[in-house]
Amino acid sequence: PEMDLERLARASSLLTLRRFGRTITLYAPLYLSNACINPCVYCGFSSRRAIERATLSPDAIELEARSLRERGFSHVLLVTGEDRRAASVEYLEAAIGLCRRYFAHVSIEVYPLSHAEYVRMVEAGAAALTLYQETYDRQVYARVHPGGPKADYDARRRAPVEAARAGMRGVGLGFLLGLAPWREEMLGLYEHALDVQNANWQTRLAFSFPRLRPAGSDFEPPHPVSDADLARMIFSLRLMFPDAELVLSTRESARLRDGFIGLGVTRMSAGSVTTPGGYRLTAQAGGQFEVHDTRSPAEMAAVIAGRGLDP
Predict the structure, then answer these.
(1) 266 with 245: CB under 8 angstroms?
(2) For residue 158, what pLDDT is reported?
(3) Predicted pLDDT of residue 286
(4) What phi-psi label fits residue 129: left (phi over 0), alpha (psi between -120 and 50 degrees) or beta?
(5) Cys-Cys link to 276, which of 31, 73, 80, 150 (CB 3.0-4.6 A)?
């Protein structure tokens, strides 16, 4: 029988405190490009959507980076759509190098790369990679990824393992909550995480819990995940992987995110913008998903500090 939620929460909270102390890391996603060649049915960046596309120039990246640094961030996540023509490996290397001047920790969430390309990302200064499998159900995967390079399930699943082999210090995994039954997805995630650990025991795992929030799409998740289900997933992963970072983004509401402070989550985004150039520039290209928690970084830090934790 499943452990009741309250006992799970207590166990997760104690273990998190023991392994991570009272610190919660705040980070910001910096969207470099929303150009994408994949026609994914659930995504705001889908190639099927007629949105304004933009790829930041080096000067624009520097403006965005400086803006985030001024807001107090020392952790940044560089995000692109999946289009190598718009955001080449050389472009990513330059963006990482530029952002290393402003941030202590630069991570990337980009299209799958080869082992040799991940080595280049590490050498450029990327500390971590995030790459969601989206769903571990192969049939559902084929349905929601009807074309483009992303239709290759195995290539995507292999990429985080190759990143670990290439020496990436952190690898973040996750699936889109709502595409398939979450218990089955959790089993796929668990097996994937073990593969990453076996590839490089020194790579720190991170798990994200992105609930489907399409931007401008009428896609309805076939298997909605309740708040209680999300809590069970977070607490269970803490018990399975005591040293993993658990990440909760601004896709979730302020009320729900506040509820997880001190219970297992160790990293949260704040003040997020999901469009290229959205922090400093006025032009608004199309976004990837709808932000739910719209509080500023300072407001988020105050809430965390108010719980006796260190943002």
Answers:
(1) yes
(2) 98
(3) 47
(4) beta
(5) 31
CB 267 within 8 A of CB 127: no
Residue 25 has pLDDT above 80, yes or no: yes
Residue 265: predicted pLDDT: 96
Percentages helix, strand, coil for the chain, rounded to the nearest 5?
A: 40, 15, 45
**Region of residue 216 (phi > 0: left; psi between -120 and 50: alpha; otherwise: beta):** left
Output the pTM of the full model. 0.92
Total length of the chain: 311
At how many degrees (to 10) do helices 227-240 and 5-20 cross?
50
Environment class of 220 (CB within 10 Å of its CB; exposed 0-12, middle 13-18, buried 19+): exposed
* String of DSSP letters for 167-220: T-SEEEE-B-BTSS-HHHHHHHHHHHHHHHHHH-TTSEEEEE--B--BSS----
Q: Can you tell me which residue has the tokens 């952790």?
A: 75
pLDDT on residue 282: 53
Mean pLDDT of the chain: 92
Give the integer Cα–Cα distance in Å for 34 and 83: 9
d(CA 256, CA 234): 13
Distance CA 17, CA 93 (A): 36
Q: Please name which of 175, 164, 173, 309 lies closest in space to residue 241, comparing C-alpha atoms.
A: 173
Which are the contacts of 69, defined by CB distance < 8 A and separation ≥ 6? Answer: 102, 103
